[in-house]
# Entry
Amino acid sequence: MTPPPFLPGLELCRRFHTEAVRPLLDEALPGVAYSAARLGGGSEVLGFDTARSADHEWGPRLTLFLHPPDAARYGERITDLLSRRLPKTFHGYPTHFAAGENEQVRVMRATDGPVHHRVEVTDPHSWFTAQLGFDPGDGVTTTDWLATPTQRLAEVTAGAVFHDGLGRLAPARAALAWYPHDLWLHLLACQWQRISQEEAFVGRCGEVGDELGSAVVAARLVRELMRLCLLMARRYPPYGKWLGSAFARTPDGPGLTPVLTAALAATDWRTRERWLCRAYETVAAAHHRLALTDPVDPATRPYHDRPFQVLRAERFTAALTARVTNPAVRALPLTGAIDQFADSTDLLTHPTPTRAALTATLR
# Structure
């Protein structure tokens, strides 16, 4: 079959709800309140999907949220109804999702039988708790913020809500739109701290002839600068696959991209350091435009009496920390949120161990 013209996933899902799912619900369960959205994992939720995305876990799909008693009462009935009566294809895309090479991954496939669809039926509390480890409808604590990877926060606050008959999704997404101000200052301080801890190593590795080690450190610093720019722009940094795409959409992304690319492409540590210093000063200037702290000199400088040029990024950490007024936030260690000090996929994709790791670190 010739693939249909690519349609961005969120638009496909919106039409799927309006044209295919909602009429069946209105007919079979009139008067039952529900909400419908495309949230959670998936490149289309963050707006980064392309035709390539259709090869797995992409297509006409959504989540239906019901009040808990209705989810328990009608969940299986809705799932069966849609399996029997959904069209086999929608705008040229199959509505049947078959197991791929990995049994846990589903792909669109034609079928003559009942549709194994991707319309999840749940209730808001269960869904948010599974995604985040807590329900924002019950309030969001400092631990909730710090224990939740920014990828998960992006997946819940991006995407699209097609219908909010329960009135639960909009307030929950608003509550998670961005960190409280003092906590934002703290996380910015922690991000500058990460840069300060390694910025001198680019030169030190190179000085002893370890150009590979110098390049690895530079790559780590580039990643931290990209994440810092996203935090400064009040955007949740996504995980590695989409970090560059998200960074390119920040105010400083277009100007910094060639600078950071040059730092990564450099084959000697002095050139690498020179490009990184240009990036440091650009990000320092962006910090000043936010007017969050007293002025901090944005110029790079020698690292003590060693011949390495650095920003001394800990100065920005100190300036931000000085502006935090909440005593509980001021008492936090400079390790930051979970994905500022941990990057294991197996950890960050499961809320229970993620929260345990954060709690252990705070102790």
Remarks:
- The chain has two domains: 9-175, 181-332.
- The first helix runs from residue 9 to 28.
- Residues 9-175 form one domain.
- The chain is about 55% helix and 10% strand.
